[in-house]
Design goal:
single chain, seven-stranded mixed β-sheet
Length: 127
């Protein structure tokens, strides 16, 4: 069974940076597209960034483009989200998801396409 464990969240001032990590275990990491989603209080879980199985393709929500960078290390079974120039509206619980059904270059962007989820890590950006 796939397990995902996120870490790296915390409290940061606006303009600051954080790097989130998500460690994957239980199956072959390279067979899964990976993504970060976030959910703010009272809002739906939304797509933030995704990366293909090989890491050759990435895709970002418009709201984080340029500021956030997703990457993966298939040797370490880990996906990262580097978040720079953080804004108060980035405050949310951040979840990583794994999708087993995409082709090598595909990056799903909807919640229902992801098969496995971590427990989430809280990111709070103060103004």
């Amino acid at each position: 069974q796939v397990q995902l464990v996120e870490s790296g969240g915390g409290l940061v001032q606006a303009g600051g940076s954080l790097r989130l990590s998500c460690v994957f275990s239980g199956r072959t990491f390279g067979y899964y597209a990976m993504a970060w989603f976030r959910q703010a209080p009272g809002k739906e879980r939304e797509f933030v960034a995704g990366i293909s199985r090989s890491g050759g393709s990435t895709y970002y929500a418009d709201s984080v483009k340029v500021r956030f960078t997703i990457s993966r290390d298939n040797a370490k079974n880990t996906v990262y989200l580097q978040m720079n120039s953080l804004k108060p509206e980035d405050t949310a619980v951040y979840y990583c998801g794994a999708d087993a059904n995409s082709n090598p270059v595909q990056i799903p962007t909807t919640r229902r396409e992801y098969d496995y989820w971590g427990q989430g890590t809280q990111v709070t950006v103060s103004s």
